[in-house]
Amino acid sequence: PFSHQMGDPVQFKDEGNKHFQAGDIDKAIECYSKAAKACTDKKLLAVIHRNRSACYLKKENYANAASDASKAIDVDAADIKALYRRCQALEKLGKLDQAFKDVQRCATLEPKNKTFLETLRRLGAEIQAKLKTTFSTDSRVQNMFDILLDDETGKENKEKAANNLIVLARDEAGAERIFQNNGVPLLLNLIQTGKPEMILAAVRTLSGMCTGHKARTMAILHMVGVDKMCSIMAIDNEEIALATCNLFQCINDSLTGGDKREYGKEEALVLDASKDLKAILLSLLKMVASKKVSGHGRDQALNLLSKNVPRQIRKEKDNSRTLFTVDHGLRKILKVCGQVPELPDQLPLTENTQLIASVLLNKLYDDLSCDPERANFKDICEEYIKSKIDPKDMDKTIHAVNTISGLLQGPFDVGNALVGHQGIMEIMVALCGSERDVDQMVAVEALIHSSSKMSRASFFITNGVSLLKDIYKKTKNEKIKIRALVGLCKLGSAGGDDYSLRQFAEGSTEKLAKQCRKWLCNPQIDTKTRKWAIEGLAYLTNDADVKDDFVEDELALKAMFELAKSKDKTILYAVACTLINCTNSYDKKEIIPELVQLAKFSKQHVPEQHPKDKKDFIEQRVKRLLKAGVTSALAVMVKADNSILTDQTKEMLARVFLALAENPRDRGTIVAEGGGKALIPLALEGTEAGKVRASHALAKIAAISNPEIAFPGERVYEVIRPLVSLLHTDRDGKQNYEALRSLTNLAGFSERLRVKIVKENALPDIENYMFEQHDQLRQAATECMCNLVTCKEVQERFLQDGNDRLKLLVLLCGEDDDGLQTAAAGALAMLTAVQKTLCAKLTKVTSQWLEILQRLCLHHKPQIQHRGIVIVYNLLNSDDSELAKKLIESEMLEILSVIGKAEDNPKRQEAIDAARTCLVKAMDLGLIKPFTSTS
């Protein structure tokens, strides 16, 4: 009776077990705890603790689970259940070493237990990985800084340490560790050294630390200070300017993108970033017009503004950042546009600064959402220009005219309105007649820019043409002569006819183009001026005779490509236009016969196709461009800054690539010069038309090249999405076909690529084309599928019920087209080899299966015959005795015997051997007697 008053531990334990089985864990814990209190028997107590440990595991209370399991192990060191439970709890508590020891004991006690072995392997790998990082933790962070800040250290060790820091900062745990270990002050010390490679390492490390963690980013921003960052970006070093720009971008993304972490009560205090964002914006605007900032720093400040001020998505109502920028910074940006590098005392600029400033002006103006906002923008511009026009001060006046040039390349309407103002045209005329070359140059450039949308101002054409002609004839200065010529080309094409050129003394377009080519090839002339020669050619190559002459002039081509690779990126648009003209890759205008008749009747000029725009001429031109190195020039152009390489330019480059890749024989050259890599960014971003053309060019290249060479490294995985996008039914048949061919090639290459193709959801499209009436598409899709069937997910699609996939494959094996049969039989041979259940399924999808198989085995092509016999072997080998019997009782036995008994024959050996293997299998199954020789 005494024991019962205390409560019976065994009863409590059994009750606990019942609750545990029923899934009521809380009740189970209650019972086990009562049992433990009442229990005196050591062994029973161990069992109770072990059971309660299982409950705590379920409740994810790992500390209690581990301590209960330990109590059981104290009683019996070989208690395998308790050991494994403790291992699971310890792993969850992050004590991997101890967990590893426990499961090691388990595995010694039961060496065949799969769970233990698997856990052992997994924990082993995790410990290795953790060792790597813990080893690289605190002491190593400190260590890296010591190496970097020590003057004695060798260069190589410094580089290693710098790289380690950058890599460590990219990982969340690493970034936190650097931060906790006094990292920010130490990074500031690195920057203080003033050595470019140290500054770079520090800035890149900070970028990693500021990625995706709002609170840490704000702390770093306050420790380093916006001014400090700006002063680093202002250094005259392109790499440092770019790296700092990237740091600002990381900070901006973290502060605006928010942060998924929980900060509890302090959330509101910690995370209001609006002040910081405003401080950054003001500092960047200050940089724009500061003399202390290098050209590279200015470019990056303008780029950051371009990227982060205007709304990305028009649906967002809030454009307050733009309005703030217009109020606080518009004059500063206009100042940059107006700089005339030839004059003394100007802001430091790069070749690209003024164009980047124009692009920013355009984006800001575009982002304004109502007329009053636009009027305010125009007023500020007008006021600024008025304040600079001073008849007594020529330098100030040409600054004003140059600012208008900048506006004409940005928000054209604003520039155009200003040009129309009283007095501006007179100033231009005066400047054109000035003694100073620089005045003439600025005026001519302004005329060129204002003529690009010429339909507006016919008075301008007449005035402009006479001014430019005059200058062209009088000037001795090549720089001005070239610009005047380009102005005449532009005015000529903008006027809609070439009357202005006809009055132009030098005569024909060909002569003008010849002159441009001469300038282009003259190394004595500065880059900025030779660029204008390309601008001229961009217009003149609309004429087929001109393009043909230009492409035959290899020196001129090479000169253009060299310029395209130079630091001056303002040239990209003109190069792209010229290449579009030379390859005829613009959108063709359809000529409608009725309209031609009408035009002839009304004596209008009819656009007729020039003989040199026929196919064979274009092919010749492509050959010459490739020979002169067009691909490597394009590869460099694609890397340009997004603000200069606009979506429109990207589309043009994509069109050129597609024209270059037309002939399969040229694709090797394109790959060798890095064309494959260069196409990927064009296929992923830009206009719809541009992306489709770039994807199509990618498909042409990927269909016939070794992917590892064409798209080195991880890039090959980025190629797949653009290729899959070409499978959509709204693309044309040629694009579908070439996409399928390229995916087939990639799928034949590696399992990782196959998995990626499946992940990009290409299978439904590929299957659709297998049902297609069009022979080539159907064959290409089947070949693609044949290369994909080794993929588990693809096999599962064939195993699913309620679809015709398998039936289709069997029927395609019966088609008359050799290529199609080869692919379908190949896919079927693979599927039946790996999935035995498909063997029986194959016989149920169509009543013709046997007849189709027999035809494959009798095929005149050895490759198809071999695949057919392999399918038969797979059916015999499928552990389905009924099916094997059915096969051997049909004519198939005779077919196999005839093939198997044939003489050895190298051409058909694979098929003969396969047939013999089938016969041996049939003997093993006891379906045929072993051959006995007849006496």
From TrEMBL:
Membrane-spanning segments: none
Pfam families: UNC45-central
GO molecular function annotations of the record: Hsp90 protein binding
GO biological process: cardiac muscle tissue development; lens development in camera-type eye; myofibril assembly; skeletal muscle tissue development
Species for this entry: Tetraodon nigroviridis (Spotted green pufferfish)
Name of the protein in question: Protein unc-45 homolog B
Major localization class: cytoplasm
UniProt entry keywords in alphabetical sequence: Chaperone, Cytoplasm, Developmental protein, Differentiation, Myogenesis, Repeat, TPR repeat
